[in-house]
Design goal:
Layout: E1 26-31, H1 40-48, E2 56-61, H2 64-72, E3 77-81, H3 84-94, E4 114-116, E5 119-121, E6 125-126, E7 150-151, H4 156-163
Parallel strand pairs: 3-7
Antiparallel strand pairs: 1-2, 1-3, 2-6, 4-5
Length: 164
């Protein structure tokens, strides 16, 4: 072996840390407030989440990237983990079949849709306003103090059932 060649050592990559945010569970996000007087970064994040109207709901995977997006829009949405039973009833009652194209004709852009049980659905659900409202103090206060915004945790299942 020649001494002029540089030594190439393989440096082991650190393993990713297991965090609570990477559990792989499903989070439902519902847009509570409208788009009037929204800052542009918040508006863009809501469009990336496909939340374009009040009472629209999306279901996303719980990971670090999605948690960051939720953190940015937490003052305009309510969110929480949902069970598989609630997700199935949401798809059954409010799922709209996607009938558009999968890609444009030049095959440069792929359109967004969800595949559930072999069927294509739109990636959002349009819900009714909840029976008995979002919270006693309205939609401008956090859920912890009796309002309708922010993290609901397990109580998100109850809200979605009231909105179906």
């Amino acid at each position: 072996m020649e001494e002029n060649q540089p030594k190439t050592e393989s440096v082991p990559k650190p393993e990713p840390k297991a965090t609570k945010a990477s559990t792989g569970s499903k989070i439902a996000i519902v847009l509570v407030r409208g788009f009037i007087d929204l800052p542009q970064p918040v508006r863009d994040t809501l469009h990336m989440l496909h939340l374009t109207r009040k009472n629209n709901c999306v279901v996303i995977v719980d990971n670090i990237v999605n948690r960051g997006m939720i953190k940015k829009v937490k003052d305009y949405v309510t969110y929480g983990e949902i069970t598989e039973q609630t997700y199935n009833s949401l798809v059954e009652k409010r799922g709209v079949a996607y009938q558009g194209r999968e890609q444009d004709r030049k095959k440069k852009y792929s359109y967004k849709f969800s595949v559930i049980n072999g069927k294509k659905y739109k990636s959002y659900f349009r819900l009714n306003p909840p029976r008995k409202g979002f919270g006693r103090k309205g939609i401008k206060m956090a859920f912890k103090v009796g309002g309708g915004l922010g993290n609901r945790g397990e109580k998100m299942n109850d809200l979605i059932e009231r909105m179906l």
